[in-house]
Amino acid sequence: MQNRNMLIGGEAVPAASGSYFEVTAPATGSLLAQVPRAGATDVDHAVRAASIGFDAWYRLRPAEREAVLLRAAELVANEGQTRFLDTLIDESGSTITKARGEIAYTVDLLRTAAGEARRLYGETFPNDDPHRMSMVIREPLGVVGVVSPYNAPLSLLTKMCAFPLAAGNSLVIKPSEETPLTALAFGRLLLDAGVPSEAINVVTGYGSECGAELINHPAVRCIALTGSTNTGIAVGQAGLSRMRRMQLELGGKSALLVLKDADPKQAAKIAAQGIFTHSGQICMANSRIVVERDIYPSFIDALKAEAEGLYLGDLRDERTVYGPLINSRAVEKVLEHVREAVAAGAEILTGGEVLNGLVVKPTILLDPPRDSLAWREESFGPVASVVAVDDLEEAIAVANDSDYGLSAAVMTNNIQWGLHAARRIASGAVHIGMHTFQSNALAPIGGVGLSGMGRSGGHYSTEEFTEVKWISVDVGSLPR
Ligand code: NAD
């Protein structure tokens, strides 16, 4: 076990207070490291550094920023296993397969973002006055405060950082207190790739302490938060008080529709992947499954078999499908959702209890009341609720019976039904023939309702992290 330091202005520094907090492994409970518990002074230090770093980074030509991000991608491709694999497994309880997937996606995100550095397109538009010419240019915002969650601590953080960097912004990162080690390693990698030392800063600590200081700092121009809806609302209100740009990627309660023409076994396999990957600690997990009555009996039989057939072993065993939840509070929340639903009349098809440590058994609830926590709120664990409906219209209505709207999916072979549902479901994304948990570095990821605001991925990200400016010129004196 070792003390680790933060990354401010290219230096590894402790907190001004000298305090540290512990980072433990959810799978074993063992102590991994102590990291600085940052407060107001440290955040101010980091934001001041980032303000200097902004000038250095934005002054680089787009091709130079592109080259730095491509170097970062190559570093992850070549050294990702040594720099990140063990940390991802130990710190976030990822399986080896999930950790490898995050590393591969990180390479993809960095390469995609690199190209965006050259594509900050502006435009011109016609002017009724023939002596005037109008153009619109895009400019970076300045210092972006990046507040990230624990569930995909490398790839989500990369998504939140690479695109604003491509657009010329500098960053202060506040990673989840559960997963600061991955973020520190990522910050170091960006420095190694050539990001100027002040342009990337990582402060470690608690949300209510250094997170709140960061989002309230007057020199922070934009906040990118990925986290729970409650945090998003608090951060959003604080951000609005200073009229900051905000990108808020929040919780979900995504619905998977299984229509009557679907193959029940195939649909059950996909549904299980969509809820049980990483113990359901995925914002887009299909925690609500809405099944047409015609195939409901065969579907739930197949889903039970899928759930009970999952291998849950050592995180470094490639057969292991998922591991522990992040901490005991997360386990308690999941069990509370199950208990409450069952007390109100839901049936447990399978699971509903702890397997060992922080590992919760794959859990399927049948027909929980529509006002239960399990149906309405994000459990963020390996729990899906299944309900039967009479037809497609009812399935769409049930899918829309949610305050969230991050992702949705439809299992059908009928493209008309699929597209009809896709256009009617209120959600940031709808996938046909797949589960709800889909990633693509170019896609506009984001939600409606309590799932947040703004989009990330490809040019959608760089638009979020730039401001447009109208410039007009009087060209009237020129000969025509
Ligand atoms: P969380 O809301 O507890 O914490 C997220 C981050 O916010 C952490 O870094 C935390 O320290 C910080 N924070 C908390 N309170 C704060 C405050 N008052 N001011 C500033 N910062 C504060 O979320 P989590 O438990 O780490 O992550 C899981 C949540 O993230 C789930 O709800 C999940 O759905 C969501 N998520 C959403 C997406 C998406 O793309 N929409 C992706 C991944 C995770």
TrEMBL record:
Residues 16-471 form the Aldehyde dehydrogenase domain. This is Aldehyde dehydrogenase YfmT. Belongs to the aldehyde dehydrogenase family. Keywords: NAD, Oxidoreductase. The active site is at E249. It holds the Pfam family Aldedh. It comes from Microbulbifer aggregans. One of its GO terms (molecular function) is aldehyde dehydrogenase (NAD+) activity. Its EC number is 1.2.1.3. InterPro entries: Ald_DH/histidinol_DH, Ald_DH_C, Ald_DH_CS_CYS, Ald_DH_CS_GLU, Ald_DH_N, Aldehyde_DH_dom. The lineage of its organism: Bacteria, Pseudomonadati, Pseudomonadota, Gammaproteobacteria, Cellvibrionales. PROSITE patterns: ALDEHYDE_DEHYDR_CYS, ALDEHYDE_DEHYDR_GLU. The gene is yfmT. The keyword Transferase does not apply.
